[in-house]
Amino acid sequence: QVQLVESGGGLVQAGGSLRLSCAASGRSFSAYHMGWFRQAPGKEREFVAAISWSSGSTYYADSVKGRFTISRDDAKNTVFLQMNSLKPEDTAVYYCAATTKILIRRVPSYDYWGQGTQVTVSS
User: What is the pLDDT averaged over residues 83-94?
Assistant: First the structure.
């Protein structure tokens, strides 16, 4: 019943931008942090960004800080990841996730996951 659905991935040239969306449904996420993670081939899933649904406080991995922005739209129950100045190293499957736990940068903290959306950045 709980569902997180990512969209907005695609192919973009280095230096370009993409905006990912995560539509959340099935329950209230008011007590949650919403996170974006990514996983490249042969790599472990890594934290990208997170946002508190209630307060709007944001958190970023060092690798994306200054380039990516996480935000939310309360009315649409949707979380966004605006990705600017994209690099080939950003190529990965991007996942939306939700957690009530404190350690929001850790994969095991998350209760719900979306199916992922592919982002490919060409040089």
Answer: 98
Between CA 20 and CA 10 the distance in angstroms is 10
Closest CA to 95 of 1, 21, 2, 15: 21
> Is 72 strand, coil or helix?
strand
Torsion from C-alpha of 12, 13, 16, 19, nearest 10 degrees = 10
* Residue the block writes with tokens 């404190």: 102
Beta bridge partners of 34: 51, 98
For the stretch 96-106, pLDDT in tens is: 999 999 999 99
Cβ-proximal residues to 42 (8 Å cutoff; 6+ apart), any chain: none
Q: Cβ(95)–Cβ(107) under 8 Å?
A: no
| Short-list 1, 71, 86, CA closest to 36 | 71
Q: Of 77, 74, 75, which is closest to residue 26 (Cα–Cα)?
A: 77
Mean pLDDT of 26-41: 96
Among residues 4, 6, 8, which one has the least CA distance to residue 24?
4
